[in-house]
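Notebook p. 47: complex prediction with FE2/S2 (inorganic) cluster.
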Amino acid sequence: MTDNKETVFICRCEEVTREEVEQAIRDGATTIAGVKKRTHAGMGLCQGRTCRKLISGMLAGRRPPEEIVPPTFRPPVRTVTISEIAQGDEE
Ligand code: FES
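Predicted complex, structure tokens below:
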């Protein structure tokens, strides 16, 4: 991460800058997953809800749209006990 006044964060959760995403694309990332592996963008608290579209836009500016592979989505999950299921939704 650079510390100048023109730093633009693409992924606020992981503090990934535009320059880092551009470098990942220059290094060969052709998909959102490729950018994610190189920068951790999309691995933060919001799970990419904010940055995914921005990264897609950055990839779209450099590659033909048919070459951009859509990302897979894995919603955040937590363990649920059998007793919680048995109790149902009482809220
Ligand atoms: S803004 Fe990228 S994971 Fe939240």
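Notes: The pocket of FE2/S2 (inorganic) cluster is lined by residues 11-14, 41-42, 44-48, 50-51 (CB under 6 Å). The domain at 9-87 is CATH 1.10.10 (Arc Repressor Mutant, subunit A).
Next step: compare against the earlier run before touching the bench.
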